[in-house]
Amino acid sequence: MMNKTDSKVGIQVALLAAVIAIMGYAYKLLSGGEEMPDLFDETQEEVVEYEDIESTYENFLPYYGNENLINHEYYTLCYSEKHEQAEWVAYEMDVRRLVKNAERSDSFRQDHDIPTGSAAVDDYYGSGYDRGHLVPAADMQFHPDAMYASFLMSNICPQVSSFNRGIWRELEEQVRDWTRGYKHLYIVTGPVLSKRAKARIGETTDITVPSAFYKVLLDYQEPELKAVAFVIPNEKSEKPLDYYAISVDEAEEITGLDFFADLPDRIEEKLESNYNVGRWPFDEERFKERVSRWNKY
User: Could you confirm whether 133 is annotated as catalytic?
Assistant: First the structure.
C-alpha cells in the first residue's frame, strides 16, 4: 500500500513532468518547431551543424596558391620544386576502401606528371633515410592502380627509419581504425617545410629532409563533425600519439598552410579552432607494440 510520503512524491514528480511538457510545447511554438533540448542530459556538447556540400575531396583541399597542383586519380598533391617533394597530399578514406585487392608493389618510380620532374629513386640510395609514404600504400590497396600511384616519388619524403616504421606507422594504422569507426575521413598530410631542415640529400636533385610531418583529419559526416591534427618530429618517439594531437588552427600556424580552405567560414572556424581528443580513441596495445618493437627497426 502506498503511504502518504510516496503519494506526495508521486504528485510532485507528475507536476514536474507536466511543467516540463508545457515548457517544451512553448519552446516548440517560439522556436519554429524545434524540439526543446533535454534539460537532464549532462553529456550534451556543442555540435557543429552539418552543411551539405559535394562529397569529393577536391572540395577539401588546402589553399595552394600558384604551386604545382597535380591531380592523380586517387589523391591530389601540391609539389614544391624548392624541396623536391609534396608540400601536401590530400585524399579521402572510406570504409568501403578498406579491402585488399592489390599487393604492396614496392615499385618506386618518378612522377612524370610533375612539370619540373620529381625526385628520383636513386636520390635516396645511401642517404640513411627511408622513402616514407605520405598517402600510405596500405590505404591504396583497394585497387591496383591506386597502389601503383602510391609509389610515385612525388608521394615520398625522406623519413628517419624509426619514425617511418614507428610512430608514423602507428598513426597510419590508427587512421584506418578511425575510418572503420567513422566510415569516411578527409585527410591532408605532408612534411613541415616551414621549419629548418634536418639535412638535404640527393644525387640528381636537392631534397629537403623535413624536421617534422603532419596529418590533418576531418570527419564531415553526420551526426558529428570533428577535426584533429598531428605534428610529429621526424625522429623516434616514445610518447603516445595523443601527445602530438593539436587543433587544425595550430597545425596551420606551424606549417603555414590553410587547410580545408573551401569550407563555409562558419563551419571552418568551429572545426579548426578546437578539438576533442576523446572523440579520437587510440589503441593502447598498438602504442605498446610500437615502443617495444617497431621503434627498434
Answer: yes
